[in-house]
Amino acid sequence: MGSDIRFGWTGAIGSVILGATRSEGGTRKISYRVGGGTTLPFLDHAPASSPLVALEICDEPQYWPQIVRNYCGDLVDDVSAWATTAETVYGADLIRLYLTSTRQRNFSDIPLVGKAVEEVLSATGLPLIIEGSNEPGIDSEVFQKCGEAGEGERLLLGTAEAGRYRSIAAAALAYNHSIIAQSPIDINLAKQLNILLREIGIQQDHIMIDPYTGTLGYGFEYSYSAMERIRFSALKGDADLAMPMICSAIDSLTIKEVREADTAYQDEMAVAWEFYAGLAAAVAGAEIICVRHPKTVGRLKKAFTSLKTGSDPTGRI
Amino acid sequence: MHTVTFLPGYRKIEVPRETTVLDAAQRAGLNINVVCGGQGKCGKCVVYVQSGKTEFDQQKNLKFFTQEELAQGACLACQATVQGDLQIIIPDSTLIQEQKILIEGLDTGIELHPSVRKYYVELLPPTLSDPSPDLSRLLWGIQKNGGPVAEKMYAPLEALREIPTLLRHSDWKVTGTIALVPGGYRLVDLQENDTSKRLYGAAVDLGSTTVVVYLWDLVAGKMVAVASNYNKQISCGEDILARVNFAKKNGLSKLQALAADSINAALTTAANSAGIDREDIYEVVVAGNTVMTHMLLGIDPGYMIAEPYVPVVRRALSVASGRIGIACNRNGGLFLFPAVSDFIGGDIIADILACGMAEKEEISLLIDIGTNFEVVMGNREWMFSCAGAAGPALEGGEVLFGMRANPGAIDKITIDPATLDPAYSTINGIKPRGLTGSGLIDLLAELLMNCVIDRNGRINTGFNHPRIRTGVHFPEYVVVRAEETDIGKDIVLTENDIKNLIMSKASVHAACVTLMKEAGISRQQITTIYFAGAFGNYLNKMNAATIGLIPEIPISQIKNIGNGAVTGANIALINRRKRKTLDEIATKIAYIELNAEPAFMDEYTSSAFLPHTDLSLFPEVQKMLDTCRLHRG
Fold first, then answer.
1. According to the per-residue pLDDT averaged within each range, which of A5-9, A119-123, B209-213, B311-315 is highest?
2. Is the pLDDT at B497 greater than 60, yes or no?
3. What is each CA distance from B84 to A191, B4, B14, B21, in whole angstroms?
4. Residue A77: CA atoms inside 13 Å, Cβ hemisphere, count?
5. CA distances to A157, A216, B208, B609 from A220, in Å
6. CB contact burial B347-381 (16+ within 10 A = b; e otherwise)
7. Fold classified for B116-192
8. How many CB pairs under 8 A join A and B?
9. How sure is the predictor about B101, in pLDDT bands with cuts at 50, 70 and 90?
10. B609 — contact with chain A (CB < 8 Å)?
11. How far is CA B226 from CA A153, B260, B337, in A?
């Protein structure tokens, strides 16, 4: 279906390698080279690979959206099984593990964090994205532990922000992982954070930009326009913005439309919302789309394939 | 009436019952710090009642005092009213202290061509064969002595009433003073005998904080004295907005009188130090910001501070000085610089005149930084201007240990890369009390170069160094340890201070970029950057570029014009031809309203980084930073 539109851009998006197979020094079944584009997605000259879809899971489900807990049932209480199912049943390309256990008050069981990472690593062969703590007081130890537990696996660690990037950067540097750099929907702030990370030694090919994704109807248009500007600047040659992007419209499952939907359609509503937000983010250029509802994974992958090949997902020509 | 005695100076004043203590203090000539304009909001005008009766609502003002202070009779001068004879102690901290005020010499190289001149004439008395009238005889005499054409000179009624007696009494030897006023040439004064050497003029910078007066001998073309004084309006509110609000509450006439008083006080000091009579001052040229100019003239500034921010006049004005209470010759003239908008006032037009940017082919950028900043860019063909709030950080406000350029303020700092210990200088060389704008900029640049802060201004608490620590609320850098200070407290710079400084510098830089984009020019096309105002004088130019306060251009092309307002006023005083261009400049300048400029916010965010998000705009700074930081590793 592609289109042979050319814009005369000279820049290229850098690549970030996620996951390491045995031959690459890790234990993953697959590794991805994310990024590398020289134009907008889904055009003829776009990279051959489709955007990747990551399923988000967590090690402490009390902080997880009710709708996912309902859908997955007991699975959410067993992070290993959840990860295995994500790969084998739901068809995710990546798994993003939120260490929600660290959000418990006065959390101090740092070894637990390492254990969760190790469990998920052994439960799946997919590359991992690890979301560490949200608490500056334990950041350093948590990221250190994650980094250590995933050494050699080329994890993607999240999430660095302008006010809080040193601990995560230290862990990434020490164990050769990559970093998610999140800024609040602004091209300048995104660039500033990348410069800060560069200045403390993080290589450009170890950074993914998270432009912060508002969900559809709740600010997505701002995210879209920030992503568009980031990508255009990168393709025009701004090296400090030439990183692949990762998007997670995490509010999609908790918005009013989903909460108040008729119980019978609630899952459908949730999936539709995640799907359209994720699709739009991919069109804006995101290389990794993160979702929480298992059913969204397959839908997005089908849509991406269809956009890539021009085939009709229903099979009609 | 009750007598209020102010200690420790024993100044006495009689005031009616119910007068506020603040009013009484002001009438006694004390400059009380009233940031909020006497609304009881700022808590700065603390005084102690030693004896006597006042009325003061302690409950309402609890937040300003400790119990101990209340027990000692503490109250707010603006809220306490006189109820009987009083003795009041005014602590030092309540008085406005003398600031380092900018007074610098001026070698203008401007040709002497004042708008007022004196002509000494020895006339032939009338006879039956030469019966021409007294006035014609006088004016012809003046014309013959190099004055304007007789027919073009006008003598007002007051002069006509004096002429017959004065001519005869002086045995037909008189000195006439002719001024060029908007209506033409005017005989403003007639004196017996030769007083032609006694002709003076004053150039005034009417600032909202300070009034500076330069006194000129308009015959010799020499500056003879300089004096400055606090703008006494400060007692009605520290910032402009507070004063406009004061004016709205029937305070305009008081503000008008205080403005005139402030000028008069400086004028008197200057005249006394030069040993001249104020009656010999025939012209006063005033450059002030738009609100100040309006207030001096007694024009209501109230409509200017609300949308759409329109001033009343946009051209130069001439009035008789007596009409607004300026203490010079009773027929003297007052010339006021024109304003462009409510923010781009006569002071900025004077800056433009002073730096000469309106006469040049090359493009200049003029920046005047205070709590508000004004930026003008252009050349003799075109000019753009804008103004905005820089926030008080660059003047030391909103910074924990920030202060104005008072004695004890650290104005220069370097940090030793090896030890991270600072070396500094203070104003007047006394022990440090705080940090002033230029010191803060130095500090920011030095901390950045030494990697103590990142480009976002966040302190790297990972540094294991006794000067870098986590304070009560924010990480901080200890600039001076308590024992070395004059205040007995560690002087620190917190991460929050740095944030405020970055926001201030970002607005200035974003304003510059907005004008550059409006005009479609790059930083390489800017030939000169002029800093006007006190701020520029103490500023380390390299550091200003390092933190990205201004666009990067070669340091040698950054110039301080110092107090451009007074320089401009001087130029307009000594050469009237220069005045002609002022209205033209004022009309030519296009004013860009930053609030209405959608790109401004983007530029601001982009500028809120050290030095800037787009490092290609600061190539030299970037190189220098890379080198410095390489050493640190």
1. A119-123
2. yes
3. 66, 8, 10, 11
4. 3
5. 24, 5, 47, 26
6. bbbbbbbbbebbeeeebbbbbbbbbbbbbbbbbee
7. Ubiquitin-like (UB roll) (3.10.20)
8. 30
9. very low
10. yes
11. 75, 17, 20
pLDDT score of A7: 84
pLDDT at B106: 45
A193 vs B95, which has greater pLDDT?
A: A193
User: Is A196–B454 a contact, with Cβ atoms under 8 angstroms apart?
Assistant: yes
Q: Which of B456, B606, B608 sits opposite A196 (nearest CB)?
A: B456
**Residue of B384, B439, B450 lying closest to B409 (CA atoms):** B439
Q: Residue B98's pLDDT is what?
A: 46
Q: SS3 for B179?
A: strand
Considering the entire predicted model, what is its pTM? 0.82
Mean local confidence (pLDDT), B370-382: 91
Q: Is B628 in CB contact (< 8 Å) with chain A?
A: no
The pairing of strands A52-58 and A94-98 is parallel
- Phi then psi dihedrals of residue B296, to 5 deg: -60, -35
What's the whole-number mean pLDDT along residues A237-257? 95
Is residue B266 within a helix (H) or strand (E), and if so which, with residue range? helix B252-274
Q: Which of A173, A185, A188 to mutate to test binding with chain B, by most B CBs within 10 Å of its CB?
A: A188
Q: Which residue of B has its CA nearest to A192?
A: B613
Contact A163 B456 (CB under 8 A): yes
Residue among A192, A200, A240 with most chain B CBs within 10 A, to mutate: A192
Encode pLDDT of A283-297 as tens digits. Answer: 999 999 999 999 999
Chain A CB contacts of B602 under 8 Å are: 188
The architecture of the domain spanning B2-94 is Roll (3.10)
Domain residue spans in chain B? 2-94, 116-192, 202-341, 349-392+502-632, 400-492
What's the mean pLDDT in B301-320?
Answer: 85
Tokens, residue B324: 């607004």
In this structure, are residues A67 and A23 in contact, taking their beta carbons and an 8 Å threshold? no
Which ipTM value was assigned to this complex? Answer: 0.86
Chain A contact for B209 (CB, 8 A cutoff): no
pLDDT of residue B105: 41
Q: What are phi and psi of B380, to 5 degrees?
A: -70, -15
Q: How far apart are CA B615 and CA A178, in angstroms?
A: 24
Whether the CB of B605 is below 8 Å from some CB of chain A: the reply is: yes
Is domain A19-309 annotated with CATH 3.20.20.20? yes
pLDDT tens column, B103-123: 444 455 778 899 999 999 999
* Domains in chain A: boundaries: 19-309
Q: Is residue A201 less than 8 Å (CB to CB) from chain B?
A: no
CATH architecture, domain defined by B349-392+502-632:
2-Layer Sandwich (3.30)
Fold of the CATH domain B202-341: Nucleotidyltransferase; domain 5 (3.30.420)
Shortest distance between the Cα of B458 and any Cα of chain A, in A, equals: 7
Q: Do domains B2-94 and B202-341 have the same CATH topology?
A: no
> How many angstroms separate the CA atoms of B233 and B541, rounded?
33
One-letter amino acid for residue B344 of the chain: I
Decide if pLDDT at B192 tops 70. yes
By Cβ distance, the residue of B455, B606, B629 closest to A196 is B455
Average pLDDT, chain B: 89
